[in-house]
Amino acid sequence: DVTAQQDEKHLFKIVLIGDSSVGKSNILSRFTKRQFNFDSQPTIGVEFATRSLTENGKIIQAQIWDTCGQERYKSITSAYYRGAVGAMLIYDITKQKTFENIEKWIQELKEYAETNVVAMLIGNKADLKAQRKVPSDKAAQFAENHTMAFMEVSAFDGTNVDLAFSRLINEIYQLIN
Ligand code: GDP
Ligand code: MG
Question: Record's superkingdom (predicted)?
Fold first, then answer.
């Protein structure tokens, strides 16, 4: 039955936010294209890519939005957040400042996104263990204080990237059902 099948399809808009160079574009390409670029160019404006996945027998179209950030912290227009059901707040585990700025990204998310948007804290570049500046337990505590999930990932070697998206998507799915 075609109608029933269509009912099982979900389109989830998920926005990637965080300072410039934390790895947003590489997380996007790792998840949607299985690719990593060492010399990725700063994103011009806004772009999105989709990947379909099945969670609990339901087809979910994850539409992931990525933006540029020319400055260390640059606010994004409300159009970017419109209709978003999920947000990944991304920092670089080797750059303390990018973690401190998460507070600002949370404020911006609160200001522009829907109240029920599901946020998740993501520490990227987990492969660079020797250069770590942000301890995992500190980030985990921060995430707990803000009642959001937390995961460290690596767009470079792919560690936890799929898992992070499926965790976020699952949480969104639980919320709407
Ligand atoms: P964006 O500005 O947030 O979109 O960041 P990019 O995706 O353009 O990445 C910025 C730089 O960090 C690039 O040189 C990437 O190759 C590098 N990078 C991104 N993710 C990782 C990662 O997981 N590990 C390592 N070692 N480098 C990464
Ligand atoms: Mg980018």
Answer: Eukaryota
